[in-house]
């Protein structure tokens, strides 16, 4: 090309017997220098992979999951002969094994034996032996871990026609990544344990209050303690849900089902009332789920105790949600609101709790209206 001598290499890419592309590589021959050992190995490996591409044996079939995430050659490279013995190890590869405690040269040693001698003892008897996995005979992804760190190794066999002529191993030091994963697992387990203990403590408080209520003869005082027990139980349900989940959010529809079941058990008309649920709340952050559980508990109890105490047989819970907000409505076909009812001036403790939690914790809005038959109470809040 003019006065430049260009070295060109082209490699056809086959798919199902047809050429679908061509890989082309160009180099200025005048600038080519005597390559270092690292560069020479890079070139030889590239040539082997190009040949496999031309033969249709690379990329490997059905191997995409093993290449995610994909290590970089610069992170560390090892070449194996047909017996799994290391013929070359890049400086970064030697450094990675040195951090695991290997003090000798890697070359001329079996990679499987080296890794097996460094790896901590594994408890799983079904796991394939480290030595076999790192022999270079098959495509494998293996982690070698000990107190010094963790190395992720991707073993890629090199074939020529039907013969295996060696393997390359790309490795990556994932010590920091695994440390962070373990910290996250520990943190999640700790959070679940905290929720479990909070739930147990709340149940203990609830049991003590229940025992105390049985010893009180004054009906109003006993009723107040029973209401406290019910409210504590609704909070305990949220913590129990969080303790049984690995997620940091609450599946509130499960909580709602349990709140409904608990409320209906306390109703003297439990066999006469039909409950209908419509729509889904979905998952909520704990900061929303806990006050919302209390709000819903109070509104359901209010509907059962006042709206459906003597008349009506239907209780409907309607949930609607979009990207910005959620609304839960509790409707009954009972006696309706008393004449002259004003939500903001109501002396009912349960409604005062609902109003306070809705405004202060949920940053939402509470409405209560009489219908043709019964009452509708709605809570709307941003998510």
From TrEMBL:
InterPro entries: HATPase_C_sf (IPR036890), HATPase_dom (IPR003594), His_kinase_dom (IPR005467), PdtaS_GAF (IPR022066), Sig_transdc_His_kin_sub2_dim/P (IPR011495)
Keywords in alphabetical order: ATP-binding, Kinase, Nucleotide-binding, Phosphoprotein, Transferase
Catalyzed chemical reaction(s): ATP + protein L-histidine = ADP + protein N-phospho-L-histidine
Recorded coiled-coil stretches: none
Ranges where the Histidine kinase domain occurs: 193-383
Enzyme Commission numbers on file: 2.7.13.3
Protein's name in the database: histidine kinase
GO molecular function list: ATP binding; protein histidine kinase activity
Annotated organism of origin: freshwater metagenome
Pfam family, one: HATPase_c
Gene3D superfamilies: Histidine kinase-like ATPase, C-terminal domain, PAS domain
């Amino acid at each position: 090309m003019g006065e430049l001598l260009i070295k060109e290499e082209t490699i056809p890419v086959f798919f199902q017997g047809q050429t679908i592309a061509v890989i082309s590589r160009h180099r200025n021959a005048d600038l080519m220098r005597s390559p270092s050992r690292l560069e020479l190995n890079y070139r030889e490996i590239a040539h082997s992979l190009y040949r496999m591409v031309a033969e249709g044996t690379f990329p490997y079939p059905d191997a995409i999951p093993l290449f995610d995430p994909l290590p970089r050659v610069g992170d560390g490279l090892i070449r194996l002969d047909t017996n799994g013995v290391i013929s070359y190890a890049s400086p970064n590869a030697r450094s990675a094994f040195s951090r695991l405690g290997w003090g000798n040269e890697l070359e001329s040693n079996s990679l499987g034996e080296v890794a097996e001698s460094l790896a901590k003892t594994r408890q799983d008897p079904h796991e394939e032996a480290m030595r076999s996995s790192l022999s270079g005979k098959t495509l494998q992804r293996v982690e070698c871990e000990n107190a010094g760190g963790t190395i992720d190794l991707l073993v890629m066999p090199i074939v020529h026609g039907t013969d295996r002529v060696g393997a390359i191993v790309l490795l990556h030091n994932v010590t920091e990544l695994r440390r962070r994963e373990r910290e996250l697992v520990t943190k999640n387990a700790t959070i679940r344990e905290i929720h479990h203990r909070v739930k147990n403590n709340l149940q203990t408080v609830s049991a003590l209050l229940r025992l105390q209520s049985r010893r009180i003869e004054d009906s109003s005082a006993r009723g107040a303690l029973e209401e406290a027990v019910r409210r504590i139980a609704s909070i305990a349900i949220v913590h129990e849900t969080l303790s049984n989940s690995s997620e940091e959010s609450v599946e509130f529809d499960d909580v709602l089902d349990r709140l409904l079941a608990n409320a209906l058990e306390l109703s003297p008309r439990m066999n006469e009332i039909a409950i209908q649920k419509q729509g889904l709340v979905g998952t909520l952050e704990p900061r929303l789920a806990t006050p919302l559980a209390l709000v819903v508990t109070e509104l359901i109890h209010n509907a059962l105790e006042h709206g459906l105490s003597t008349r009506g047989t239907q209780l409907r819970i309607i949930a609607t949600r979009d990207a910005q907000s959620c609304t839960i409505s509790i409707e009954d076909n009972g006696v309706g609101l008393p004449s002259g009812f004003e939500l903001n001036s109501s002396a009912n403790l349960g409604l005062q709790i609902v109003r306070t939690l809705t405004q202060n914790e949920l940053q939402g809005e509470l409405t209560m209206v009489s219908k043709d038959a019964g009452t509708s109470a709605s809570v709307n809040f941003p998510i």
